[in-house]
Amino acid sequence: MGEINRRDFLKNATKGTVGLVTLSILPLGLAACNDKEQKMDTSAMANLGPLSEIEKGPFPKKVEYVASIKDAWVTQEQKGFVYVAKDEVKQELLFMSPICTHLGCTANDADEQQKAEGMTFFCPCHGGEYDELGNNIGGPPPRPLDIFQPVIQDGNVYIAVLSPIERTSKS
Ligand code: FES
Question: Least crowded by CB within 10 Å, which of 20, 82, 118, 152?
Answer without folding.
Answer: 118
